[in-house]
Design a protein that fits this description.
Layout (H helix, E strand, L loop, with lengths): L8 E7 L32 E5 L7 H4 L3 E3 L19 E5 L3 E5 L5 E5 L5 E5 L30 E8 L5 E4 L6 H8 L17 E6 L5 E6 L14 H4 L8 E7 L5 H15 L7 E7 L6 H8 L7 E3 L8 H12 L2 H8 L1 H8 L40
Parallel strand pairs: 1-3, 2-4, 9-11, 9-12, 12-13, 13-14
Antiparallel strand pairs: 1-8, 2-7, 5-6, 5-8, 10-11
Length: 386
């Protein structure tokens, strides 16, 4: 899929269906002059439901469907006939989608599992017919309940990739090359900065038919947290990663300084990212001898590191072992089980000032031929008083 088809931000308008009004009908049959009330209930309006679908990995299918409307419930009728329920709408989204209110930026819900469903907007209940209000002292009620109104809101769907390991580094650090070698992913690779314009996912095979997921995001530059380059738009994709792998080429002038710059950009974007486990991979080491490696190792950050070469496959097995060990450590397993810890990182309110859309001035769509059923006059059944 081309870069232009990767959509991870979508703003849409959702509206559930309103409930149908109850009927104030009276039984009318030959030789039965006072048949009594037999008005049916109105049908419930359709709800708007979000459902996780692992077959989607982008929000492209929602880019051109900006208005999701549930059907209204139909009104009840005579002979205690209930109105037809309005058909709801199910919005299929990729696993890892977070939903925010478009006006306030408040967090609404998070879809992480395949088949998980969340009722975003509940359809209005149908009104009760007049048959429910008959009593011994009120045998001919001429009123019925109107249906409940619909719910509506603008929402923002934000996709955050689900991966175990996230690759962090400057442009041309060798992240895409590493992903293409250790997995079956085929990211675009070229000898110029910002070759990667969209995140890429790859499944890394390990021993005994085990595997883990690795994510490659576009390169980060200094000032990415203030909007420079592409880092600000894609930094959120590493919020779900259990482990961060910093990839820095061996020909960098100062590896420690570059690492600190990358770490600072993550901290500026979200201070809680500093608490994630971190590893360092020194890439492009196929031309280094042991003496140069030892010289470089003397001035590296105080985190686990490994020298690798995606071209010659040097150090890749060691890298996989280190990643697998960290992903399955007691601390990492406990953090996965503790959903509260994960929620504090992922479920932050959205700063809507940093998200720009072309349709901010859009108005909700309404059916031109839609009548306000609740204002409809009820019939006057004066013949019953005769």
């Amino acid at each position: 899929m081309s870069e232009s088809n990767f959509v991870d931000y979508v703003k849409i308008y959702c509206r559930s269906g309103k409930g149908g009004r109850g009927s104030s009908h009276f039984r009318r049959e030959k030789y039965i002059p006072k048949g009594g009330p037999d008005g049916g209930d109105g049908g419930a309006g359709g709800s708007i439901i979000l459902r996780g679908n692992r077959n989607y990995w982008t929000l492209l299918h929602l880019r051109y469907e900006r208005h999701i409307l549930g059907e209204h419930g139909e009104a009840g009728s005579g002979k205690k006939s209930s109105g037809k329920k309005g058909e709801g709408r199910v919005i299929e989204v990729p696993c890892g989608t977070v939903v925010y209110d478009a006006h306030s930026g408040d967090y609404i819900c998070d879809i992480t599992d395949h088949g998980e469903e969340v009722v975003l907007l509940k359809g209005g209940r149908g009104g009760l017919g007049n048959t429910h209000f008959k009593t011994s002292t009120n045998q001919a009620p001429r009123y019925a309940q109107p249906g409940e109104p619909f719910e509506e809101r603008w929402i923002i769907l934000e996709l955050k990739l689900l991966a175990d390991v996230g690759l962090v580094g400057f442009p041309n650090a060798g992240k895409s090359t590493l992903l293409s070698v250790v997995s079956a992913a085929k990211p675009k690779i070229a000898n110029y900065p910002f070759t990667t314009l969209k995140p890429n996912l790859g499944i890394v095979s390990y021993r005994d038919n085990q595997s883990f997921v690795m994510a490659d995001i576009p390169g980060i530059i200094e000032g990415a947290s203030q909007g420079k380059g592409l880092g600000l738009r894609f930094l959120r994709h590493i919020e779900r990663n259990s482990l961060l792998l910093f990839v820095i080429p061996a020909d960098t002038d100062d590896i420690k300084t570059e690492y600190n710059i990358l770490l600072n950009e993550l901290t500026e974007y979200n201070p809680e990212l500093v608490d994630k486990k971190r590893l360092l991979a020194i890439s492009k080491t196929d031309l280094l001898d042991e003496e140069l490696k030892q010289a470089i190792a003397e001035d590296l950050p105080e985190i686990p590191y490994v020298f690798i070469s995606a071209v010659t496959n040097v150090g890749l097995t060691t890298l996989k072992d280190m990643l697998w060990k960290e992903l399955n450590s007691e601390e990492a397993v406990q953090l996965k089980e503790d959903k509260t810890e994960k929620d504090t990182l992922i479920h932050r309110n959205l700063d809507i000032k940093t998200v720009l859309f072309d349709d901010d001035e859009d108005v909700p769509p309404f059916d031109e031929d839609e009548e306000d059923e609740d204002e409809e006059n009820y019939e006057d059944y004066s013949y019953l008083d005769q």
